[in-house]
Fold this protein.
Amino acid sequence: MSSAPRPSVGRIPVLGVGPSLEEGRWPAKAVVGEAVPVWATIMREGHDAVGATLVVTAPDGTTTSKPMPCQDFGMSLYRASTIPSTTGDYVFAVEAWSDPVTTWRTVAEVKLHAGQDIQLVLAEGVAVLERAAEQPGRAAADARLLYGAIAALRDTRLDPEARVAAAMSPKVRALLERAPLREWVTRSAQYPLRVDRERALVSAWYEMFPRSEGARYDAATKAWVSGTFATAARRLPAIARMGFDIVYLTPIHPIGTTFRKGRNNSLDAGPDDPGSPYAIGSPDGGHDAIHPQLGTLADFLAFVAKAKKSGLEVGLDFALQCSPDHPWVTEHPEWFGVRADGSIAYAENPPKKYQDIYPLSFDRDPEGLYLAIREVLEVWIRAGVTAFRVDNPHTKPLTFWERLLADVRASHPEIIFLSEAFTLPPMMHMLAKIGFHQSYTYFTWRPTATEMGDYLTELAGASSYYMRPSFWPTTHDILTPDMQSGGAPIFAARAVIAATGSPSWGIYSGYELVENVARPGVEEQIDNEKYEYKPREWARARRLGIAQLLTTLNETRRAHPSLQRMRGLTVHPTDNPAILCFSRHVSAQESPTGFADAVIVAVSFDPFHEQATTVTFDPAAIGLTSGHPFAVEDALTGQTYEWGDTFYVKLGPRTSMAHVAAVRLA
Amino acid sequence: MSSAPRPSVGRIPVLGVGPSLEEGRWPAKAVVGEAVPVWATIMREGHDAVGATLVVTAPDGTTTSKPMPCQDFGMSLYRASTIPSTTGDYVFAVEAWSDPVTTWRTVAEVKLHAGQDIQLVLAEGVAVLERAAEQPGRAAADARLLYGAIAALRDTRLDPEARVAAAMSPKVRALLERAPLREWVTRSAQYPLRVDRERALVSAWYEMFPRSEGARYDAATKAWVSGTFATAARRLPAIARMGFDIVYLTPIHPIGTTFRKGRNNSLDAGPDDPGSPYAIGSPDGGHDAIHPQLGTLADFLAFVAKAKKSGLEVGLDFALQCSPDHPWVTEHPEWFGVRADGSIAYAENPPKKYQDIYPLSFDRDPEGLYLAIREVLEVWIRAGVTAFRVDNPHTKPLTFWERLLADVRASHPEIIFLSEAFTLPPMMHMLAKIGFHQSYTYFTWRPTATEMGDYLTELAGASSYYMRPSFWPTTHDILTPDMQSGGAPIFAARAVIAATGSPSWGIYSGYELVENVARPGVEEQIDNEKYEYKPREWARARRLGIAQLLTTLNETRRAHPSLQRMRGLTVHPTDNPAILCFSRHVSAQESPTGFADAVIVAVSFDPFHEQATTVTFDPAAIGLTSGHPFAVEDALTGQTYEWGDTFYVKLGPRTSMAHVAAVRLA
């Protein structure tokens, strides 16, 4: 048995086409307005010239072509970028071809210079330009210009140099660059490119527990009164003023009471403990229902409307697990695992037991469960939700996500799914490949400048064509040791890296207040909001400066296209391991504004001491040439500096933990 | 328009399968007896166990399976190797599956230890082993063993530990490792693997101009008398004694007289100049003919027979170009390029002209020319030629080679083609991908230890799955500056690296005599054998030691499987940039002998001075553990040393330029 016959390599071989995931097994990803570089290795026998064309087919079937110039002659690498203007499924291919005009021109120049074979050169020029003029599809005006050049080549009244010069005039050259004579055209396979709306790449998320906002302890009843959608909505203008795009609500559904967790994850909840919103489902309903204490569907719709009015999208937590009190448990026991004794399986990580949670089983009635979950999403999409933060997607089958994401995409291509898969790298990447729009990352676990620099470089590389990282300095589940001890300075530094290191980032409410006390022995907040109401005195934020910093960062992100892309990031060496410096750059051709843009970020990782360093800067990383100083303006302080191939920065807790320096480009 | 629908990712996704060239666009390559590692990234949702199986289908359709163990848990990487036993086109695939037995075992061990859910653990064990026993295709004896384990799990007379222990007995484990319970089996695509005979990877070539061997100047006639196949054959026993496998003859065809080149590439050949054998074709015939001065076809057959008797294969130069006197020029002018004035195009690199050479044109009558060339090969294959050294394949279309190589392979799978493509890396690699068995490399242009170490590392990496490098310290066209000045010591050092750094290497006759004088201004021999007879006084070789070294190197290559593979090469740091150290290793499982094998090579790049270094050696590279010294024996000197994590070597022109140290493995 042998494998299927493969097509021939072709007359002008094209190989190594990218971006591609396993030769098109999954699509590469982009958003509207984002430049997608396409590359290919192209070669031919001998020394004659080749050319390459990028052919892009839009979702509506429209095809556009553009030349792919040679980027690296030694490696036979050709490259051009395409900027999709609509959402949908594109395909691209690369065409390689023999370029007889360039071949002739190269030979003609050498021979003319050497005074060799002049008549032959002229005759060969006539022949090749005739082929160009007669090429099918050649516009009449272009053909006229070419015949003019041919006539000049034949004009024996002129000297040979003048005859050849006419055939190489700038006009003729431009024509043949725009519409070249392409012979032996060899086409690559077609590669898929999925284009989403811009928010899929560029977004600032703000996470909140709606029940906390407006919650109050009633001294009379000695009981807590939950916040509601109405009280939570009062916070929306402040979130919008800070410049966020998406307000993400932790689960808003009824919460189970069986094995309910109490404060600080205790097993004995008191009657007044509201329970974790991740223990979804009670007699009041399941994933498609709203916790009665938050309000009604109408109240939720009002919240969404107010958010929209403030310029905010609403994202929901999508946590596919049930409390023992979820209606599905009795209505659809076939959607849960069963233990050998016939009981429904609760969550376990032996010997630990999580009896308040019943994981769903996707294998006993996959079709029934799928349709129910699909309908849950539809309920919230109908209510105006445009983004889902998916809790632990790596604990559900990949086939399930593959189907669900394709399905939602077909009818609601605007919906954004953010994957929360804090697990092994191959799984995190796989979820991105099969369709998640964004992914949480290992950002929080890169505590040093070196580790962070390496990670930024990695994310801006090959994976940037399918995985869109979202950087979160903290979440309701994560408070890393460095964040527990560094106070407001480390909160500031981390926010700067998150906001400028990736086009998507997110903040968990309370960040403004530098909430940094951990429950002993655990890397998460003490008095975790998951288990109790946590109303906040926002007035206290002013003194800490973080809210203002978040505002400035989001403003700066909006002003700078280079901060709205994952690629274009370069880490520059510093001589102090406590300071990270990276630049962000987008060229004029690849910028949605039509103007080049560059920002240089320098951040200290030491929240306790002043640190200084000399940065060895590579100006080529931002499209500048060595030896020419340039002016920058720090978006955080308004101060201006003149920087160049090397520059000195001093950062610290008492002055500023970072520069976010916009480069003044000519 | 959207791209074709792709198959689902599958329940237990398999991705990143290799070795693969663009997902099977071209086959990976191996030879009979060579271990081919196959790898894949495999994952699943949650924490349950997965397993992987490598499925290999041989050319005759026979399918074999073997377990793929997890090699890197963090990267979800699985790996196993297969050793093909016949030539032909194989395919392989990877199956990933849920492993419920391991999942149960892991949970059972933890819960038993914690005294938790004991009855449940026992009942779940029964259920999972029942599934295993009832699996279709389960051998009766295996099923009996499993039912025994199930009975023990149910045996309430025993304590729980004993009941579980019975289900985890070594016998049951071994059975389930050999024939596991595989659920939700997910299969990767099939990937092609082309298997050639061993000589395609492991070969020592010896190049000679047959007309030189036995040529003599006749003082009476004052003219040269050409060597013949008969006189050349006298050299065969010596070549065989040095341990070479293939004697490769530069072109043996009639040589043109029009624009014949004289001594040292001069344009004015004298009547006595024999001409370059690369200017093929005269009234005596073309590529299918023999130069009358060398003999007849019968003489050539006798030469081949003598070679075979000495254990040598015969390789021919395959130079697809013609002298103006080639019969094809008049019989088939359509096989050549035509200039605008109607004349046949000679070779040019403007402003240089090579009027003694007419390149073939593959585009005017591709079918006619193809069939003629195919028949030329058939003539020589019928005459017993088993290898072709292909001159400048990169100047002919890749589609031509793709067709020709597939065609010859179909009827003569034993024929080996060696590509001489000294051009850009992508073309060199492309020729390997589309079917050339071996390739000349940039070996000669890596004059420092660092450059050579990097290059060896590169060749032993990803490209080793399709490109088999052949290392030549010199050829009739190449004499690099370092080889011109370093005398016998550099000839020795280069031979050591060529013979031990790659499983294929080659020597151009005269190397034994340290012929190292270049024509001024050119990196090739003065009085180049291409343009004149060059009989050699072989007796002079003894004094220089190179012939003896070549013999020792070929003997050592035969004795060590690790030198017969491209992979398994590791470069080890030295503290002296003049010394390169690398190890070669093959494990017992991957060795054709069944025994592990390791050789450590240390070579000096300084032919003028003694050099010493400490090598920082990584014993893991040869399957040993750190901290345990090991004994080695130098194949060049017979001396033994005790080496370890670091060792000291001293090399130089007066003692030895290299160690080729066989490691005594337990």
Remarks:
- Chain A has four domains: 14-98+188-196, 100-181, 208-320+367-424+440-451+468-556, 563-663.
